[in-house]
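=== RUN LOG ===
request id: a7f3
mode: sequence -> structure
chains: 1
length: 345
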Amino acid sequence: MGSTLAEEFDRIQQMFVGFSVSIPALVIERTRLERFEASVARNHALDSLCRELLAKLKSIRSPDSYVHLAQAYEVYAEACFCLRLATNELTLVRTPGTGDYKEKRPDFLYSQGPASLYFEVKALEIADPVIRNPKIGMEALEVMADLDARVRSGTGQKFFSSELAISGHQMGSTAAQRIDETIRRICNVVKPEQLELGPTVLVVDLGRLWPKSQGRNAILPVFHEEGHSAESCASGELWHIACGQSGERVFVSPEFEGGSNLGGHQKLEGVLHQLPGLVAMTFVLHSWSANLQMLTIWNPGSIGFRAGDPPSLSESEIEEILWKYSDALNNTSSECPGAGPPQTF
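=== RESULT ===
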């Protein structure tokens, strides 16, 4: 009998104990792996993804298998999205031709009668992964050695997670820099051909980037930040990634009462300006202790709807689908911010 996803993940976790740390290994959640395998009998796309993910996990033989870890995480991100939709009775299939030689197609297809909606999932890597993955591993080793010495001498407790500062972005990045860098990387990895089959939703998994925690406010242009030590207005970073304009002012949380909330200016046009054919963007945020959070910005009037295209879902039908699986939804005019139904995954 072959190993399970959870068993392979346990093996990988053991490789890191006392030696290193990996952002993908930190973000992948064991209970989600178990839920994938419990659901494959009812979902052909998820069954295919589980087999692919198992092969990727088995290929990881050492803590410095950075490429294999990255590949495993990309499949994991696709499986997470596939299962979230399945829990909302939205069954996805792999888009025919996906992965064929030189074929550029979105990952998934949802059909409703003769009409279709496509989903392309992109799991963004950490900044400068070739340089920073080994660096994070070395820093983790140094911290663990220091903590071990302190524990042995009785001068400290071994709280590793609080001692090592890990960020998917470059340390010290400003809000405006994070927004611009995320836009740049999204536009670099999305191929225009992947958006040409029909109305397409771009799904951006941010599990390895760990964006600033703003909750559902992240898809608002600006919001009043209550409960902060210095209450102020702040910009929703995910909104600016999707809809921001070049030169637009970015507002941030003041560092202290009376401090400035001016955070510089965005340099790049948001993704929905650069890729106007997209009908929506969904951002996927991960948590160790809670369900995934999916925040969506809908692009009504997208040029993805063109006369002469194959039959497609109406804009109202697409909006209904987006509401079903999203924790929160807004549109590009910020006319409909609101919470979706309670999610179980």
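=== NOTES ===
Residues 164 and 287 are 18 Å apart (CA to CA).
Confidence is low (pLDDT under 50) at residues 157-164.
=== END ===
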